[in-house]
Amino acid sequence: MKKLILLLAISCMAFVSCNSAKNDNTNTTMLQGEWELNYISGPRIAFQGLYPDEKPTVNFDLKTDLVSGNTGCNRFSGKLDVVGNKINFKNDNMALTKRYCSGEGESVYLSTLQKIDSYSISEDGKTLSFIMGEVEMMRFVKK
């Protein structure tokens, strides 16, 4: 009887563990592709004033574990650091092009990105939110 209970307990733990990993993987899979910024928290300048020519983007390539994008002026790329819904852009190996950018848009985008510690994706898969603590700091739409 003890062996049966032990076997049942191990089976339940394995099932819950596999199901939990599946849920994290499904959410991570939804990151794949290019997203365009449509909201950023903090600046006193209107969104259109920050990014008059080109909206920032972020692109996730899950096959190569890379993240890249555009700051509204320069391009960036680096290794993707994501586990479940936790994400980290504080990677020292992030590369950034260095052309001249007028305005504050790029610095606002990059400094806000450094604060992000998690993300969420809407049920329809069309909206990506970058979160600091419990506050939505950036919102993107799927391109």
TrEMBL record:
<dbReference type="InterPro" id="IPR005184">
    <property type="entry name" value="DUF306_Meta_HslJ"/>
</dbReference>
<feature type="signal peptide">
    <location>
        <begin position="1"/>
        <end position="21"/>
    </location>
</feature>
<protein>
    <submittedName>
        <fullName>META domain-containing protein</fullName>
    </submittedName>
</protein>
<feature type="domain" description="DUF306">
    <location>
        <begin position="31"/>
        <end position="129"/>
    </location>
</feature>
<dbReference type="Pfam" id="PF03724">
    <property type="entry name" value="META"/>
</dbReference>
<keyword id="KW-0732">Signal</keyword>
<dbReference type="InterPro" id="IPR038670">
    <property type="entry name" value="HslJ-like_sf"/>
</dbReference>
<dbReference type="InterPro" id="IPR053147">
    <property type="entry name" value="Hsp_HslJ-like"/>
</dbReference>
